[in-house]
Amino acid sequence: MASNNAKFLTHQDAAILNRNLVLNYIKENAPVSRTDIWENTDLSRASVTQIIKQLIEHGYVYEKGTGESRGGRKPCYLEFNANVRNIIVYDWHLKSLFLTDLNANIIYRKNVQFNGRISPDEFSEMIAEAVNETIEVQKLDIKKVIGFGLVIPGMIDPVNGNVILFVEQGWKNVNLKSMVESKTGIETTLEMDSNMLALGEFKYGVGNEEKNFVLLDVEDDGIGFAFIINGECYRGSNNMNGEIGHVSLNNEGPKCSCGRNGCIEAYIKEVLRRKTNNWKKEAAYYIGIAASIIINALDPRIIVLSGNVIEKGGEELVSSIRNVVLNNVLKADKRNIKIEKSTLGQYGRIKGICSLIYENNFYILK
C-alpha cells in the first residue's frame, strides 16, 4: 500500500522542471533552435514553444540570427542571457567580493581586506557593508541578485550554513549563513573552498570531461582535497571531508595549527616559511605524499592540482610532484594516473559556487 505521506509531482512542479530543462539546454548548447530543443528534450513542440515564449518574456533567452533551412523556414537561433541576473561571491583566500553574471563571468571586484584574526560578528558586518557598497556602486536591483556565496576554508556544514571548525580563526560551530543573511537580506550559500575549486574544475576546467576526479588544493595556509563522484562533491557523512593536511607523518615533527605534530600541512608551511632556493622540490615531496595517500586509497584517474602554492611553483613544482607520486604509489605504472595543473587557478572557487547557486535557483523564473 502506498504511504499517505508520499509526495507527488504537481502540475506546477512539472512545469518548472520542464522550463528549467529547456533553459539549461540553451545555456549549455547555445546557439540552438527550437527544433534542436524538442528533438533533444522529449518535450512536445507546443510545450517548447510556450516555454521559450516565457523565457524570452523574462529575459533569460533571446533570439539571435538564423540557421540553414532543413526544408522549411530558416530556424531562429536562441541564446542564453547571462546578464539577466547576478550572483555575489566572497572568496576568503582572495579577500575579495565578486559580482558575476549567471555564467560566472566576473563583472566587478571589490577588495575586502583584514589582517589576522577576526570574529564572526566583525566578519559578517564587514561583508554586509561590502555587499551594500557593491550594490550601490553597480546600481543593482537587489531583486536581481539570485544569491550570495561565501567560500571559506575549514570544516563546513553547507546544509545548515554552519562553520563547524575553522582552526586558524578559532571559529567553532558558527552559523555564518544566518548571520550574513540577516545583514544583507540575500539568500546565502556557505561552502568549503576545496569543494568549490573541484566543482569549478568540473564545470569549467580540467575536469569538465571527467565525472570522477580528485582536486588537491595547496594554499599558503593549508592543504585539502575534494572528491567529485558522478559530478557531485563528496562531503562525507559529517561534512568533514578533505582534511588530508592533518595526516601526521611524524609525531616529533613541526607543530601544526590543529595542535598535533608532524602534519603534512605543518611541513608544507615550514617549507614555505623558510623559502630556500630548493623550496619547490621540498614542497613537492610533502604535496606528493598527500597525493599518493589519496591515490592509494581512492584510485582516481586524475588529480587536479590547484591553489596559490601551485600557481607560484608552476610547472617545475607540478613535475616534481608527479615524480614523488610515481615513486610512492603502489603499482603506479599500472594506474595510468594523470596529474594536471588547474586551468582556472584561484578563480575556480568563484566558478564553482556560482554554478551551485545557479543550479539551486532554477525556480527564479516564477
Question: Can you describe this structure?
Answer:
The protein has 366 residues and is α/β, with parallel strands linked by helices. It folds into 3 domains: 11-80, Winged helix-like DNA-binding domain superfamily/Winged helix DNA-binding domain (Arc Repressor Mutant, subunit A, Orthogonal Bundle), CATH 1.10.10.10; 86-196 and 349-361, ATPase, nucleotide binding domain (Nucleotidyltransferase, domain 5); 206-343, Nucleotidyltransferase, domain 5. Helix content is 40%, strand content 22%. The strands form 4 sheets. The protein has a 5-stranded mixed β-sheet with strand order 5-4-3-6-10, sandwiched between helices. The protein has a 5-stranded mixed β-sheet with strand order 13-12-11-14-15, sandwiched between helices. Strand 4 and strand 5 form a beta hairpin. Helix 7 packs antiparallel against helix 8 and helix 8 packs across helix 9 (308-328). The longest helix has 21 residues, at 308-328. Residues 1-6 have low confidence and may be disordered.
